[in-house]
From TrEMBL:
Classification of source organism: Bacteria, Pseudomonadati, Bacteroidota, Flavobacteriia, Flavobacteriales
Protein name: Uncharacterized protein
Biological source species: Nonlabens dokdonensis
Length: 168
């Protein structure tokens, strides 16, 4: 009985450390992801905010997920272009993985292993994206092509982020 009590006390005093897992949610799906990073908007338009970025996993497939606080009727869609510091350009095709919740437009784009390898060896400089609105009409101030850059106090070394996240 003493032995059992000693074990109980021992195990109750050992701190339990749980590694938190980040997730990104799009529609009815959730994907394990990195934490959220910020790319600074290059637009002078006050309606266009900074672009948030996470890397995520969909099974064996890797995703880059971008989001921005906009309005409830728009989405980030069509082609996403990633410009790397070494001049490499990665074009991502819209696969229709997008959503808009709480005025935050969010879209996910698949990247191949070769494209992730490029990001492992050259940092993301700028991302070019499109905002579309099917209900805004001809006088909307949202639609357009915008860019956001990895600069300022939020500059991130994505070569390290991608290497660590996808080695797991």
């Amino acid at each position: 009985m003493k032995h059992l009590l000693t074990l109980l006390i021992l195990f109750s005093t050992i701190p339990i450390i749980a590694n938190g897992q980040n997730f990104v949610f799009i529609g009815e799906n959730s994907y394990p992801s990195t934490k959220k990073y910020t790319l600074k908007s290059n637009s002078d338009d006050e309606n266009i905010n900074d672009l948030k970025l996470v890397f995520a996993k969909d099974g064996e497939k890797g995703l880059i997920v971008v989001s921005s606080k906009l309005t409830d009727v728009v989405k980030i869609a069509n082609k996403l272009i990633i410009y790397l510091d070494d001049g490499t350009v990665i074009s991502c095709i819209d696969r229709g993985i997008n959503d808009n919740v709480d005025d935050i437009a969010i879209s996910a784009y698949s990247l191949t292993k070769a494209e992730f390898t490029k990001i492992k060896f050259s940092n993301i400089n700028t991302i070019r994206y499109q905002i579309v609105c099917s209900v805004c009409g001809p006088f909307n101030s949202w639609e357009g092509t915008y860019s956001a850059s990895n600069k300022g106090n939020s500059k991130t070394d994505f070569t390290v982020v991608v290497s660590k996240f996808y080695e797991k």
